[in-house]
Sequence to fold (954 residues):
Amino acid sequence: MLTYSFDDRGTEALYEYLYRQIKDDISNNKLKPKEKLPSKRALAKHLDISTITVENAYSQLMAEGYIYSVPRSGFYVSDISADDYKFSDTSQYKPRTYKKDAKDNNNQETILDSPKYFMDFVNNNTAPDNFPFTRWAKLIRETMAEERDNLMIKSPSLGVYQLRCAIVNYLYQFRGMDVEPEQVVVGAGTEYLYGLIIQLLGHESKYAVEDPGYQKIARIYKANKVKCVHIPLDNEGINIDALEESAADVVHITPSHHFPTGIVTPISRRHELLTWALKSEKRYIIEDDYDSEFRLLGKPIPALQSIDMSNKVIYINTFSKSLTSTIRISYMVLPKPLIERYNKELSFYACTVSNFEQYTLAKFLERGYLEIHINRMRNYYRKTRDILLENIMKRKDDKKINIMEEDAGLHFLLQVDTKISDKQLVMRAAENGINVSCLSQYYYDRSNIKDHILVINYSGVDTEYIEEGVDRLFEVF
Amino acid sequence: MLTYSFDDRGTEALYEYLYRQIKDDISNNKLKPKEKLPSKRALAKHLDISTITVENAYSQLMAEGYIYSVPRSGFYVSDISADDYKFSDTSQYKPRTYKKDAKDNNNQETILDSPKYFMDFVNNNTAPDNFPFTRWAKLIRETMAEERDNLMIKSPSLGVYQLRCAIVNYLYQFRGMDVEPEQVVVGAGTEYLYGLIIQLLGHESKYAVEDPGYQKIARIYKANKVKCVHIPLDNEGINIDALEESAADVVHITPSHHFPTGIVTPISRRHELLTWALKSEKRYIIEDDYDSEFRLLGKPIPALQSIDMSNKVIYINTFSKSLTSTIRISYMVLPKPLIERYNKELSFYACTVSNFEQYTLAKFLERGYLEIHINRMRNYYRKTRDILLENIMKRKDDKKINIMEEDAGLHFLLQVDTKISDKQLVMRAAENGINVSCLSQYYYDRSNIKDHILVINYSGVDTEYIEEGVDRLFEVF
Fold:
């Protein structure tokens, strides 16, 4: 049977490594066309890995045409020796392999990107029933009928003015922020906006991120080859002394609701942060306000931007959480001196969001649909959380558990009493069909790690399956 | 005046203590709605604390809605007897000034970004009649009805698989390129993709651009703080000796149709370029194929990518020209070793294009609608060009003129005999309502400049007004 050593795998995912090994063997003709592959279960047993891992590897090989499946028989190696294709002779254009049923293909690749779990406490795809399809479809129709001319006019670099006005009104009503449309920059996702911020504040600046924190942020700074330091948190958010010592110029924080600890930075620390920023002209604070809409208890925390009188805060937010992450629209609010710099140095960039979606979203905001949608979703998430907590509390007698930060919205922390390591915990949960992450995974400085605290993101969880999901999760401990 | 003792403050910060005292007085109705608060300076003096402390306290009270400010008057106590600052209570928010008629707003800012001309030979907004609104609207409807589940699933970093397949098929049929969907990266505009390329090939690499050339490309390299050199062209495209001398690692070229000179790089120079690239592992060629679809005479020039056997060419293209620039969808095809690097180092980035538009475009391509649309537009552009040339040729007797590169598509060069400088020429044309640019504006090295050559981009020109447009233009010389 196929035998692969996983010793050289490095940080690659198991299924990805396995997929590459098999693909290489097919390319090198070690595995011959029409040769039968072992069943998923048999290969899993043989290699001492989970069946899901093999399934993911096979799915990817299928998607790419390296293997094919015969129902009720198994998987076979494709014949990839077909002729090379030569340029300009159109007679030999073979029909492409990329005309399979689109749905199938996409599902297969989706599996590669995120393996299919019974319950997913990490990713937050929006359930189709939770996206306002009817209203959105209606507004797209309206936009295409009424805005024909505007749709063809190049958007200003900052974004369509109508959308920026709608965003400003929204921020005023829901975040108490008094800003002007001329300060708003619309972009295709916060990750893109981080890149713009680096170009705006300078590649020579040193950027500080939260530790623990959302790891992608540091990856983006590093991919852009700017200096990036990880600053530890205390109970009130980012530690000011450590920040000061780090000699960072720019600090990237989530004061309204830190991910994943849930810490809300109190007003005192906010003022300390603003004071820190005032000490040098180069210093700035990036306030990442990614899910402030979903605080489930009490009044929303005012944005740090709204108490900044010194033009030191760049406010950044997204419609990924409030609408869906698959429409790529985010925005930032720049202090006036920075927007001047943007207009001078970066406004040659075309706006990255399609006019069609900018106008549609503008209408969605203008008519108050987002407010209605968010209220509906808050109720939905509260219900999901309550059912989840109820099911977890049922096990309180068997297991020592502790629930933290359950009101901040969209995720909470679950401390469990177990002897197995966090790594094993996550792996065993995956084998049980549960995707879950541990707080420890979000730390850069491994010496500060607290073990056995699960991060339970419930935004993508279907209430119907919660009972079984919790069962499967608790089997792990 | 407000008097507070700071004796009981404990370890609390001054401003925080002050903020709490005032807040309590407002809550207890000791301070009445609409009552005026002392000025920051007066209160500071009175309490013997710094103005900044009072400012911080007031800011926080403002942010939380306890007080409000009246410009040029001062701070007043809010009426909080109604509801607290509640998420869903919009009644107490004053209407923003940003609710003017949306169309007006947009026009205002559009005018700001690009003044309205009688005829525009520089920008290329798509005329609304030239966008396939009916088909696009139909496909959006279909997408929203049929792809509900897929629309909510996060797109792979490279883009939705279905769209990448459609692009690969399109490239195969129309550019003779044999690539795989796994090599395609979809992104929100070529400018965004340039940024990804820099992250992929390295910030320490030196990037070469064409001189003359499309100036934005150099601006993007410079905004990303990478070394960028300008290499002169000869009659066959970028000069290889100059490129070699420059010690550049990466060269960014438009071999199919250089903008603005219209030069098509012949096969011999293409092979020289590939040979240049082979000399070092770090060397790469970025082939920017931005308008190859619109060559009006003869068969399309094969892509450089299609004759590259050494994984040295990054192919980049966009739907801006073939569909509309206001839908932000571009893509690049990476050589396999680079796509591996992308998957390892950059696939943490979310795709920047909305799923809604990715699926819609995939269907548009799959059904051959783009081909139909391009054929229609080629006819339309040919007609526009012919009317334009006819109107220009009428003046041949009065003025010495020379037309060049009229078959490459979407723009040609018009050499005129005049005494005024290019700068004056552009200015006077603008005064006559004509937006036009000169070849000289696209040069970095001013010593190579050829004067009095106009770049006539006719993709956004309305045939009905051509006669008057040409009249207005010729009045300038």
Q: What stands out?
A: The domain at 133-369 of chain A is CATH 3.40.640.10 (Aspartate Aminotransferase; domain 2). Chain A has three domains: 14-77, 119-130+372-476, 133-369. The radius of gyration of chain A is 25 Å. The CA atoms of residues 379 and 457 of chain A lie 16 Å apart.
